[in-house]
From TrEMBL:
It catalyses: 5-(2-hydroxyethyl)-4-methylthiazole + ATP = 4-methyl-5-(2-phosphooxyethyl)-thiazole + ADP + H(+). The lineage of its organism: Bacteria, Pseudomonadati, Pseudomonadota, Alphaproteobacteria, Hyphomicrobiales. Its cofactor is Mg(2+). The gene is thiM. Substrate binds at M58, G184. This is Hydroxyethylthiazole kinase. It comes from the Bacteria. ATP binds at R133, T157. It comes from Bosea vestrisii.
Protein backbone atom coordinates (compact mmCIF):
# COMPACT_ATOMS: atom_id res chain seq x y z
CA UNK A 1 0.00 0.00 0.00
CA UNK A 2 2.74 2.43 0.98
CA UNK A 3 4.76 1.93 -2.19
CA UNK A 4 1.59 2.25 -4.27
CA UNK A 5 0.79 5.57 -2.58
CA UNK A 6 4.35 6.77 -3.16
CA UNK A 7 4.15 5.79 -6.81
CA UNK A 8 0.83 7.61 -7.15
CA UNK A 9 2.36 10.74 -5.66
CA UNK A 10 5.39 10.74 -7.95
CA UNK A 11 3.61 9.83 -11.18
CA UNK A 12 2.91 12.71 -13.52
CA UNK A 13 -0.20 13.28 -15.63
CA UNK A 14 0.22 14.83 -19.07
CA UNK A 15 -1.41 18.20 -19.77
CA UNK A 16 -4.14 18.19 -22.45
CA UNK A 17 -1.95 20.21 -24.81
CA UNK A 18 0.90 17.68 -24.45
CA UNK A 19 -1.46 14.87 -25.50
CA UNK A 20 -2.86 17.00 -28.33
CA UNK A 21 0.65 17.77 -29.56
CA UNK A 22 1.53 14.07 -29.89
CA UNK A 23 -1.81 13.33 -31.62
CA UNK A 24 -1.28 16.23 -34.03
CA UNK A 25 2.11 14.84 -35.02
CA UNK A 26 0.56 11.40 -35.65
CA UNK A 27 -2.09 13.06 -37.85
CA UNK A 28 0.57 15.00 -39.77
CA UNK A 29 3.18 12.25 -40.19
CA UNK A 30 0.75 9.32 -40.53
CA UNK A 31 3.39 6.85 -39.30
CA UNK A 32 3.18 3.28 -40.49
CA UNK A 33 3.30 0.70 -37.71
CA UNK A 34 4.53 -2.74 -38.73
CA UNK A 35 2.53 -5.13 -36.54
CA UNK A 36 3.44 -8.75 -35.97
CA UNK A 37 0.41 -9.42 -33.85
CA UNK A 38 -2.01 -12.17 -32.96
CA UNK A 39 -4.71 -13.49 -35.26
CA UNK A 40 -7.45 -12.51 -32.79
CA UNK A 41 -6.52 -8.83 -32.61
CA UNK A 42 -5.26 -8.15 -36.15
CA UNK A 43 -8.47 -6.54 -37.35
CA UNK A 44 -9.21 -4.31 -34.35
CA UNK A 45 -5.53 -3.30 -34.24
CA UNK A 46 -5.48 -2.26 -37.92
CA UNK A 47 -8.78 -0.37 -37.61
CA UNK A 48 -7.71 1.40 -34.41
CA UNK A 49 -4.47 2.55 -36.08
CA UNK A 50 -6.43 3.93 -39.03
CA UNK A 51 -8.86 5.70 -36.69
CA UNK A 52 -5.86 7.20 -34.90
CA UNK A 53 -4.46 8.58 -38.17
CA UNK A 54 -1.66 6.04 -38.51
CA UNK A 55 -1.12 3.35 -41.17
CA UNK A 56 -1.22 -0.34 -40.25
CA UNK A 57 0.88 -2.99 -41.95
CA UNK A 58 0.26 -6.48 -40.63
CA UNK A 59 2.91 -8.50 -42.50
CA UNK A 60 3.88 -11.77 -40.84
CA UNK A 61 5.91 -13.79 -43.38
CA UNK A 62 9.35 -14.56 -42.04
CA UNK A 63 10.97 -13.64 -45.38
CA UNK A 64 9.39 -10.20 -45.65
CA UNK A 65 8.89 -8.78 -42.16
CA UNK A 66 12.32 -7.13 -42.22
CA UNK A 67 11.60 -5.39 -45.54
CA UNK A 68 8.20 -4.31 -44.25
CA UNK A 69 9.71 -2.95 -41.05
CA UNK A 70 12.56 -1.02 -42.73
CA UNK A 71 10.37 1.90 -43.79
CA UNK A 72 7.97 1.77 -40.86
CA UNK A 73 7.86 4.44 -38.16
CA UNK A 74 7.61 1.84 -35.40
CA UNK A 75 7.39 -1.92 -34.87
CA UNK A 76 4.92 -3.88 -32.74
CA UNK A 77 5.58 -7.46 -31.64
CA UNK A 78 2.66 -9.23 -29.93
CA UNK A 79 3.01 -12.93 -29.04
CA UNK A 80 -0.71 -13.62 -28.50
CA UNK A 81 -0.93 -16.41 -31.10
CA UNK A 82 2.75 -17.10 -31.62
CA UNK A 83 3.43 -20.02 -33.98
CA UNK A 84 6.48 -21.70 -35.50
CA UNK A 85 6.76 -19.14 -38.31
CA UNK A 86 6.09 -15.97 -36.32
CA UNK A 87 8.64 -17.13 -33.76
CA UNK A 88 11.25 -17.00 -36.56
CA UNK A 89 10.05 -13.58 -37.71
CA UNK A 90 10.71 -11.98 -34.32
CA UNK A 91 14.55 -11.96 -34.54
CA UNK A 92 14.26 -10.34 -37.98
CA UNK A 93 12.19 -7.52 -36.51
CA UNK A 94 14.54 -7.12 -33.55
CA UNK A 95 17.44 -6.75 -36.01
CA UNK A 96 15.69 -3.95 -37.93
CA UNK A 97 14.74 -2.20 -34.70
CA UNK A 98 18.36 -2.38 -33.52
CA UNK A 99 20.08 -1.46 -36.81
CA UNK A 100 17.66 1.33 -37.76
CA UNK A 101 16.97 2.61 -34.26
CA UNK A 102 13.22 2.08 -34.69
CA UNK A 103 10.92 2.23 -31.69
CA UNK A 104 9.79 -1.25 -30.70
CA UNK A 105 6.71 -2.07 -28.62
CA UNK A 106 6.46 -5.57 -27.19
CA UNK A 107 3.17 -7.06 -25.92
CA UNK A 108 3.90 -10.20 -23.88
CA UNK A 109 0.40 -11.70 -24.12
CA UNK A 110 -0.11 -14.60 -21.67
CA UNK A 111 3.63 -14.76 -20.92
CA UNK A 112 2.76 -16.19 -17.50
CA UNK A 113 1.20 -19.26 -19.13
CA UNK A 114 3.89 -20.90 -21.25
CA UNK A 115 7.65 -21.51 -21.22
CA UNK A 116 7.86 -20.69 -24.94
CA UNK A 117 6.38 -17.24 -24.38
CA UNK A 118 8.73 -16.63 -21.47
CA UNK A 119 11.70 -17.67 -23.62
CA UNK A 120 10.68 -15.31 -26.44
CA UNK A 121 10.12 -12.47 -23.99
CA UNK A 122 13.63 -13.02 -22.67
CA UNK A 123 15.01 -12.73 -26.22
CA UNK A 124 13.08 -9.54 -26.96
CA UNK A 125 14.05 -7.94 -23.66
CA UNK A 126 17.73 -8.29 -24.55
CA UNK A 127 17.25 -5.41 -27.00
CA UNK A 128 17.83 -2.10 -25.19
CA UNK A 129 15.35 0.79 -25.11
CA UNK A 130 12.19 -1.14 -25.97
CA UNK A 131 8.73 -0.42 -24.59
CA UNK A 132 6.80 -3.30 -23.01
CA UNK A 133 3.00 -3.00 -22.69
CA UNK A 134 1.10 -5.65 -20.79
CA UNK A 135 -1.65 -6.13 -18.27
CA UNK A 136 -0.81 -6.48 -14.57
CA UNK A 137 -0.50 -10.29 -14.67
CA UNK A 138 1.87 -10.24 -17.65
CA UNK A 139 4.03 -7.44 -16.27
CA UNK A 140 4.27 -9.16 -12.87
CA UNK A 141 5.36 -12.40 -14.55
CA UNK A 142 8.17 -10.48 -16.29
CA UNK A 143 9.22 -8.37 -13.31
CA UNK A 144 12.75 -9.84 -13.02
CA UNK A 145 13.42 -9.64 -16.75
CA UNK A 146 12.08 -6.07 -16.84
CA UNK A 147 14.28 -5.06 -13.91
CA UNK A 148 17.33 -6.33 -15.83
CA UNK A 149 16.38 -4.85 -19.22
CA UNK A 150 18.39 -1.82 -20.37
CA UNK A 151 16.49 1.40 -20.98
CA UNK A 152 13.11 -0.30 -20.94
CA UNK A 153 9.85 1.66 -20.68
CA UNK A 154 7.25 -0.36 -18.74
CA UNK A 155 3.58 0.19 -19.45
CA UNK A 156 1.12 -1.67 -17.25
CA UNK A 157 -2.48 -1.16 -18.34
CA UNK A 158 -5.58 -1.58 -16.21
CA UNK A 159 -8.05 0.66 -14.36
CA UNK A 160 -5.13 3.05 -13.95
CA UNK A 161 -2.36 2.74 -16.52
CA UNK A 162 1.16 3.02 -15.10
CA UNK A 163 4.03 4.10 -17.32
CA UNK A 164 7.57 3.93 -15.98
CA UNK A 165 10.99 4.65 -17.41
CA UNK A 166 14.22 5.29 -15.53
CA UNK A 167 13.56 9.02 -15.84
CA UNK A 168 9.85 9.52 -15.34
CA UNK A 169 6.56 7.91 -14.46
CA UNK A 170 3.01 8.68 -15.53
CA UNK A 171 -0.39 7.50 -14.34
CA UNK A 172 -3.39 7.57 -16.66
CA UNK A 173 -6.74 7.26 -14.89
CA UNK A 174 -8.97 7.24 -17.95
CA UNK A 175 -10.85 4.36 -19.54
CA UNK A 176 -13.93 2.24 -18.86
CA UNK A 177 -14.48 -1.36 -17.64
CA UNK A 178 -16.08 -2.17 -21.01
CA UNK A 179 -12.53 -1.98 -22.41
CA UNK A 180 -11.96 -5.39 -20.77
CA UNK A 181 -15.07 -6.91 -22.40
CA UNK A 182 -13.85 -6.83 -26.01
CA UNK A 183 -10.84 -8.92 -26.97
CA UNK A 184 -7.87 -7.14 -28.47
CA UNK A 185 -8.44 -3.73 -26.93
CA UNK A 186 -5.18 -4.05 -25.00
CA UNK A 187 -3.38 -5.33 -28.10
CA UNK A 188 -4.63 -2.33 -30.07
CA UNK A 189 -3.41 -0.05 -27.25
CA UNK A 190 0.11 -1.32 -27.93
CA UNK A 191 -0.23 -0.33 -31.59
CA UNK A 192 -1.41 3.20 -30.71
CA UNK A 193 1.53 3.54 -28.33
CA UNK A 194 3.85 2.44 -31.17
CA UNK A 195 2.32 5.09 -33.49
CA UNK A 196 3.02 7.75 -30.86
CA UNK A 197 6.59 6.45 -30.38
CA UNK A 198 7.13 7.08 -34.12
CA UNK A 199 6.60 10.81 -33.59
CA UNK A 200 7.65 11.33 -29.95
CA UNK A 201 11.18 10.36 -28.88
CA UNK A 202 10.29 10.17 -25.19
CA UNK A 203 8.59 6.76 -25.11
CA UNK A 204 6.96 7.34 -21.73
CA UNK A 205 5.38 10.56 -23.00
CA UNK A 206 4.30 8.74 -26.17
CA UNK A 207 2.64 5.96 -24.16
CA UNK A 208 0.94 8.38 -21.75
CA UNK A 209 -0.44 10.40 -24.68
CA UNK A 210 -1.74 7.30 -26.49
CA UNK A 211 -3.36 5.83 -23.37
CA UNK A 212 -4.91 9.14 -22.31
CA UNK A 213 -6.56 9.59 -25.70
CA UNK A 214 -7.58 5.93 -25.80
CA UNK A 215 -9.00 5.99 -22.27
CA UNK A 216 -11.02 9.12 -22.98
CA UNK A 217 -12.29 7.53 -26.20
CA UNK A 218 -13.33 4.53 -24.06
CA UNK A 219 -15.30 6.81 -21.73
CA UNK A 220 -17.08 8.43 -24.68
CA UNK A 221 -17.79 5.06 -26.33
CA UNK A 222 -19.25 3.71 -23.07
CA UNK A 223 -21.72 6.60 -22.97
CA UNK A 224 -22.91 5.80 -26.50
CA UNK A 225 -22.94 2.01 -26.73
CA UNK A 226 -25.54 -0.67 -25.92
CA UNK A 227 -23.04 -3.35 -24.83
CA UNK A 228 -19.63 -4.83 -25.75
CA UNK A 229 -20.44 -5.26 -29.46
CA UNK A 230 -21.44 -1.67 -30.12
CA UNK A 231 -18.73 -0.51 -27.68
CA UNK A 232 -16.05 -1.73 -30.11
CA UNK A 233 -17.62 0.24 -32.96
CA UNK A 234 -18.11 3.35 -30.80
CA UNK A 235 -14.51 3.11 -29.55
CA UNK A 236 -13.15 3.20 -33.10
CA UNK A 237 -15.41 6.19 -33.85
CA UNK A 238 -14.37 8.00 -30.66
CA UNK A 239 -10.66 7.45 -31.41
CA UNK A 240 -11.21 8.82 -34.92
CA UNK A 241 -13.04 11.89 -33.58
CA UNK A 242 -10.56 12.67 -30.77
CA UNK A 243 -9.40 16.28 -30.85
CA UNK A 244 -7.77 18.93 -28.66
CA UNK A 245 -11.12 20.32 -27.44
CA UNK A 246 -12.35 16.89 -26.31
CA UNK A 247 -9.05 16.24 -24.53
CA UNK A 248 -9.20 19.61 -22.75
CA UNK A 249 -12.83 19.10 -21.70
CA UNK A 250 -12.39 15.51 -20.47
CA UNK A 251 -8.98 15.97 -18.82
CA UNK A 252 -10.16 19.03 -16.96
CA UNK A 253 -12.89 17.20 -15.07
CA UNK A 254 -10.52 16.01 -12.31
CA UNK A 255 -11.33 12.32 -12.68
N1 LIG B 1 -11.13 -1.48 -15.14
C1 LIG B 1 -10.80 -0.63 -16.12
N2 LIG B 1 -11.31 0.61 -16.14
C2 LIG B 1 -10.97 1.47 -17.10
N3 LIG B 1 -10.13 1.18 -18.14
C3 LIG B 1 -9.59 -0.04 -18.17
C4 LIG B 1 -9.88 -1.02 -17.18
N4 LIG B 1 -9.18 -2.14 -17.46
C5 LIG B 1 -8.49 -1.88 -18.59
N5 LIG B 1 -8.72 -0.62 -19.03
C6 LIG B 1 -8.17 -0.01 -20.25
O1 LIG B 1 -8.30 -0.97 -21.27
C7 LIG B 1 -7.19 -0.94 -22.16
C8 LIG B 1 -6.64 -2.36 -22.30
O2 LIG B 1 -5.99 -2.72 -21.12
P1 LIG B 1 -6.01 -4.19 -20.51
O3 LIG B 1 -5.08 -4.16 -19.35
O4 LIG B 1 -7.40 -4.63 -20.27
O5 LIG B 1 -5.36 -5.00 -21.71
P2 LIG B 1 -5.21 -6.57 -21.96
O6 LIG B 1 -5.56 -7.33 -20.72
O7 LIG B 1 -3.87 -6.81 -22.53
O8 LIG B 1 -6.31 -6.81 -23.09
P3 LIG B 1 -6.32 -7.82 -24.36
O9 LIG B 1 -5.23 -8.82 -24.13
O10 LIG B 1 -7.69 -8.43 -24.36
O11 LIG B 1 -6.10 -7.03 -25.58
C9 LIG B 1 -6.21 0.07 -21.60
O12 LIG B 1 -6.30 1.26 -22.36
C10 LIG B 1 -6.68 0.30 -20.15
O13 LIG B 1 -6.48 1.62 -19.74
C1 LIG C 1 -7.92 -14.20 -26.65
C2 LIG C 1 -6.52 -14.23 -27.16
N1 LIG C 1 -5.81 -15.39 -27.21
C3 LIG C 1 -4.59 -15.22 -27.69
S1 LIG C 1 -4.25 -13.60 -28.14
C4 LIG C 1 -5.80 -13.12 -27.65
C5 LIG C 1 -6.25 -11.70 -27.77
C6 LIG C 1 -6.13 -10.94 -26.51
O1 LIG C 1 -4.84 -10.76 -26.07
MG1 LIG D 1 -3.25 -8.40 -23.72
Amino acid sequence: MTSDTTEMTLARTLQPQEVASVLARVAEVRPRVQCLTNTVAQNITANMLLAFGAIPSMAIHVDEVAAMAEGAGAILINIGTINAESELAIPKLLEVARDRGKPLVFDPVFVELSPLRRHIAGQVLRLPDILVRGNATEMAALSFDLAAAKGVTRVTTGKVDRIESSAVSFAVAHGHPLMTRVTGIGCAAGALIAACCAVEANKAVAAAAALTAYGIAGEIAAERCRGPGSFEVELIDAVAAMDAATLAARMGTGR
